[in-house]
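Chain and conformation:
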Amino acid sequence: MNRVIQADLNLENDQQVSTAPKENIKRSIVKTISWRIVGTIATVTISYLLTGTLALAFSIGGIELVSKMVLYFFHERTWNSIKWGK
């Protein structure tokens, strides 16, 4: 009896995993941009506090914004394709 119940629970879990919606690319892009805005504000603030130069702080923030946005996007899409933990 326990085997039948366990097999039924395993079947339900498999069905839930296979029907779980994937995140679409537009959502990933919006999440990427919103997270980078938050991160870049923090980077510019820290850079300004350390350097005392607003122009240098924005330069650092600009480089960080673009590079980390690209890295995060591909990181997010890779994790979206991994079934572990879903």
In short: The helical segments are 2-19, 25-51, 54-80.
